[in-house]
Amino acid sequence: MDVHVKEGQLYVQHQKFGKKWKKNWFVLYPASQNGIARLEFFDSSGGGAGGGGGSGSVSSEKTRKLDKKIIRLSECISILPALTEACPKENMAAFCVETNDKTHMFAAEQNTAKEWMETMCDIAFQPQGGSGSGNINIANSNGGPQELQMSENLIYYSREEANEFWVSVQRTEASERCGLSGSYWLKAENDVLILKDSKIKKNILVWPYKLLRRYGRDRVSRGRR
């Protein structure tokens, strides 16, 4: 039997009904021998999971669980705060979970939303095995291990010399949701990526590196001066 690491009530945004928010009950599972890492959620408008009531209430809850939705965390591309999204209530924060084929928008009280994001990131973006070292060992002429070091390639600029890039946004469901189109400046800081307005360079979106899953998936071009 799978053991969950977190559960609770969050709001989920339904695109089909004009971006309306609806309460759902969420259960987060890590990967185990019994199942994959996943986020399960189902309608909880009837009183939430585990609510009291007679046999009718129990039957209704079972029906809702049968209609549950599942997000495979192995398919997550990013889990990020949705800073520009209007939340269902005050003192709430929204965040989006982007997978290979869909972007899901959730909301909760600010501290609760932060806890969910951090826990999901810990499960979805775990290091993939290995010793964690960037060095490669091979045998030297004496048969002993010889460590290869990465040499500096002078063809490329360092991050300190060039950390701003001229980028164009592709039209996707996620870009439309965030209201992004056209070209922007993308700046690489020590721990975050910052998307800036193309004219006045005002910060529009900020992505912490630890919340990003894929690097170099799409082409990024830097304008010539």
UniProtKB/TrEMBL annotation:
UniProt xrefs under InterPro entries: Docking_Protein_DOK (IPR050996), IRS_PTB (IPR002404), PH-like_dom_sf (IPR011993), PH_domain (IPR001849)
Domain of life: Eukaryota
Cellular component, GO, one term: cytoplasm
Ranges where the IRS-type PTB domain occurs: 161-225
Domain PH: 3-125
SUPFAM superfamilies, per database record: PH domain-like
SMART domains: IRS, PH
Gene Ontology terms describing biological process: cell surface receptor protein tyrosine kinase signaling pathway; positive regulation of MAPK cascade; Ras protein signal transduction
Protein's name according to its UniProt entry: PH domain-containing protein
Organism, as annotated: Takifugu bimaculatus
